[in-house]
Write a structure and sequence with these properties.
This protein is mainly alpha-helical. 73% of the residues lie in helices and 0% in strands. InterPro entries: Homeodomain-like_sf (IPR009057), HTH-type_TetR-like_transc_reg (IPR050109), HTH_TetR (IPR001647). This is TetR/AcrR family transcriptional regulator.
Length: 197
């Protein structure tokens, strides 16, 4: 029975994630990843034929990790409770996964999406459509199904929580524990404001 490879794809992606968190997308080069992982550059090229493949794998791994938990968080039968849980998940997940969160604070375009292989671009589009569909379902369940309402739901569930994450991350601070509840409270305030008016 052969030994497992010393520098497998996951360990190389872990090294790439650390570089991305420290230096942003520009810091993720094939040479830098090899150096960070203590691997020969051939190991990196063996797993990832070129930098676009590496950047795609890195971005998609972080996105998959985030989206799987997010989609699970928004399954409460009460749509408002689901929305609150989704917003809280963004903050909690980001606190618990700082390297992945740092990657997702950039866009896929920052990670060279235009140069990714077509299957990876398609995979990203499918993943984003799935989340968009669930956000639309939540908006509809709350009786808000216009394009404006769906955009408001996206802002409440994703953009506002990520603003809390980004502010703390960029300042080099830990995300405070109360930020999850604050993100959830912002959802309630935004999505129920018309009912109170």
């Amino acid at each position: 029975m052969g030994r497992p490879p010393r520098h497998d794809a996951e360990s190389l992606l872990d090294a790439a994630a650390h570089l991305a968190a420290e230096q942003g997308p520009r810091g993720v080069t094939m040479t830098a990843v090899a150096r960070k992982a203590g691997a020969p550059s051939g190991s990196v090229y063996h797993r990832f034929p070129g930098r676009p493949d590496l950047l795609a794998a890195l971005w998609l791994r972080s996105l998959d990790r985030f989206q799987s938990g997010f989609l699970e968080a928004i399954t409460d039968p009460d749509p408002l409770a689901s929305a609150r849980a989704g917003a809280a998940h963004v903050v909690r997940w980001s606190r618990e996964n700082p390297s992945d969160a740092a990657i997702l604070l950039y866009s896929a375009a920052d990670f060279g999406r235009a140069e990714w292989p077509e299957p990876e671009r398609d995979r990203l589009d499918r993943a984003n459509r799935r989340v968009a569909k669930e956000i639309r379902k939540l908006a509809t369940a709350l009786g808000h199904d216009s394009p404006r309402d769906v955009e408001q739901m996206r802002i409440a569930l994703i953009d506002i929580p990520y603003a809390l994450v980004r502010r703390n991350y960029r300042a080099g601070k830990k995300i405070p524990k109360y930020a999850e509840e604050l993100a959830a409270d912002c959802v309630t305030a935004l999505l129920t404001r018309e009912a109170r008016a």
